[in-house]
Amino acid sequence: MSEVNDDFRIFKRTYRDRQTSELVKTDDWYIQFRDHLRVQHRWPAFASERQSRKLAEKLMELVGARRSGEPLTDKQTAFLETIPDELRDRLVAAGIIDRQSVLRGGPLLAHLEGQKGEEGKLITPGYQQALQAKGGTPQHVKSTIDRVKRIIDGCAFSTYADFRRPGAITDVGVFLGGLREKKKINGSSYNYYIRCLRAFCRWMVKDGRIPANPFAALERVSNADVDKDERRELSVDEVRWLLDTTLATNVIRLGLRAEQRERLYRFSFQTGMRPGQIRGLTKASFDFDADPPIVTARAATVKRRKIHTQVLTPEMATELKGIFSTMMPAALAFKMPSACNLARMLRKDMADAREKWIEAGATAEEKIKRGQSDFLADVDHQGAHADYYSLRHSHGSALADAGVPQKDIQASLHHTTSRTTERYLHTRRHSLATAIGQLPIVKPVRERDAIAATGMDSAALPAAPPSQPMATYGNPKGEMKAASSSQKANTARWAGAIGQTENPCVAGSIPALPISIIHVPPLRRAGRVQFLIGASPVQCALMSVPPVMRLPMRRGAGEEGVGLVFLDVQPVHVRLKRLRIL
User: Fold this and answer.
1) 52-61 long-range contacts, CB within 8 A, separation 24+
2) What's the rounded Cα separation, in Å, for the pair 478 and 476?
3) Cβ contact 80:101 at 8 Å
4) Out of 32-41, 105-114, 270-279, 306-315, which region has the weakest mean confidence (pLDDT)?
5) Which of 82, 111, 134, 476 is the most buried (most CB within 10 A)?
6) How far apart are CA 101 and CA 86, in angstroms?
7) pLDDT(234) > 50
8) Looking at the whole model, is its pTM more than 0.90?
9) Contact 406, 427 (CB under 8 A)
10) What is the arithmetic mean of pLDDT over 92-101?
């Protein structure tokens, strides 16, 4: 009994019974067909004729796809997931399907963690074993696998077909967005999850397990900094207070004496090394005879997996050389607690230093003011937290404040890109004020036009000894005319009036400073006269004195003069550059 088709035939094989010598048919049906290379095969099927016929039809669909070179459809892929392993192996051996088609039908967790047998023995390596083979740290491998596994479980992905289902990209975004909304992850972690998932899919493509990356279009969020946990840096003054207070406090924390903690903090600040690198340093890591002295961290302890060599200050090199003189070469250079306790230890020492700093206030008001500041605070007013990495950030910020080029700071911090280094260069208020102070002074257009109408120019103003007040008069053509005797008398009278005026600019703490007066008649409008007295607003700003004041004065009947006053605090007369219209 058999059924013949143009492409295949199903039949039951016959054999002779050894006991009765009779011909007997098999219980299971067989399929006879030719593959894409016209090679004939006879494979066992099922006991049911109907199931065997359907299997033969599916096999011929696979042969047709192989012969035409077309990719397998989702239905064909789903079919391969349901057939027995023995039949799947036959298809691969015959070349009807490739290894990729077999692997993509397996569970995603088998691709991720590797396929294991009943006894837990690894049969087929997965992404986890590939990361380990590349030399990834156990912490990095674990965090990467856990993130991908969390997405697979959270989105109910089982096989590669689930990755390709409509809306899979949206499912991942919604799942991670829900975790972020519940404050279980932040924006940065969201992007890390995306990066790990895409890396896993890229590896499967490279390993020939899937034809394409189904999450190549999955984008990261651009607002990751909205809920990012910011890390604060310590200023140089904060580091000094921390070191001095830690050394002066005779307290043992987590098995470390005060001098051990102070030395550890100082070394971290001066070198900018990561805690993991410092933890792996030994006496042999230091070369005190080099010029300059250096310390070298092994590649296994460095995040980039490359050797990191840092220069030591002469003071630190001399101190450590004396301490290491009685130690074995393989002895650890620094005693350190665990990663969590390391940050906790630093915060406690910061709290002690902050308390001492507040108590050092001269008055009660000063102590209250210090208590309201974020100096040595665990969390500053912007919500940035302090941990042990804050000393590394302080290293980068201190170098930037000292004017060190960013490429040298990048080398000191051992960063791959300058973009990473920028996160360590915290802008401080005084540095920003210095930068803003370099901006040129700009005036509205109407004031520039009025100044141009006077014909006055900074180059046209003659220098005059500050001890001798001088009155000069300009005109729209820019010509300078000598003052008449009456004008000189009026100038002297106005200068005397200004000197007697009760104003902090010219009276009180600095009443005897010399002044210079410039009278500009062309600016007279409606009986008002412009006066510019003195010439150094910059010096006034340095002395915290208002550089400009208005002085109402009488000049004849019903005419009121208005003066702009600048104090000349240097022995050299500074020329005016601008005239301000009041």
Assistant:
1) 52/10, 52/28, 53/3, 53/10, 55/31, 56/5, 56/8, 56/10, 56/31, 59/8, 59/31, 59/33, 59/91, 59/96, 60/7, 60/8, 60/33
2) 5
3) yes
4) 105-114
5) 111
6) 15
7) yes
8) no
9) no
10) 77
